[in-house]
Amino acid sequence: PHHTTPHHTTPHHTTPHHTSHPTTMAAIARVAVSAKNFLGQTEKFAAKKTTVAKVNTTIKAVEWYGPDRAKWLGPLTGEVPSYLTGEFPGDYGWDTAGLSADPETFKAYRETELIHARWAMLGALGCVTPEILDATNNVPWFKAGALIFSESGIDYLGNASLIHAQSILAILGCQVVLMGLIEAYRVNGGPAGEGLDSLHPGEAFDPFGLADDPDTFAELKVKE
């Protein structure tokens, strides 16, 4: 008789596949490092761009101040008065009448010129507004004033309930009184308060912080 040797089946042990946590953490760390490096390069680029912009602004500011500033007749200007040193904005070295020779007179003229310029900018807005609004029939600015002599008079912004003017003398009187009160208030301290520059007070008068950077502020003075 043949003896059959029984085959013993060896059990196969299946090794469970565990997710390699160290590998995953290493990948996450590499991503974090890459992101940090990218952000670092971005910050460096932004800082470099800001530095370049500031240098360009400084160069522009230097063009309008000091002895090498732009002159009123360019290279043909010749000798400028000794009291025009380029310290203040708008100094192009021209004063043939000697109006700025006295420091106090120069200070008064400079203040008057700047205030007049600001009122003129508001006046320019007042000229453009009637031409834009349909309520005023888009009347050209050089014809708007003549409406005071018409039978209907002038309606402020085309609305009779705001200001309905029919007398040019009344308008003149109101302007003199209102402007006088405003200027008197400004000369005597005005809304700027104490310890602030009367011409460029900043703070509440500069809500967007345009004058925070000294170089930008110097250039904005020239533009104004």
Describe this structure in words.
This protein starts with 20 loop residues before the first helix and ends with a helix. It has 224 residues and is mainly alpha-helical. Mean pLDDT is 78; it is low at 1-20 and 49-53. Helix content is 48%, strand content 2%. The longest helix has 43 residues, at 21-63.
User: Which percent band covers the strand fraction?
Assistant: under 5%
How many β strands by DSSP?
2
Low-confidence stretches: 1-20, 49-53
Largest sheet: 2 strands, antiparallel
Please write the string of helix (H) and strand (E) elements.
HHHEEHH
> What do the pLDDT scores average to?
78
Provide the helix percentage.
Answer: 40-55%
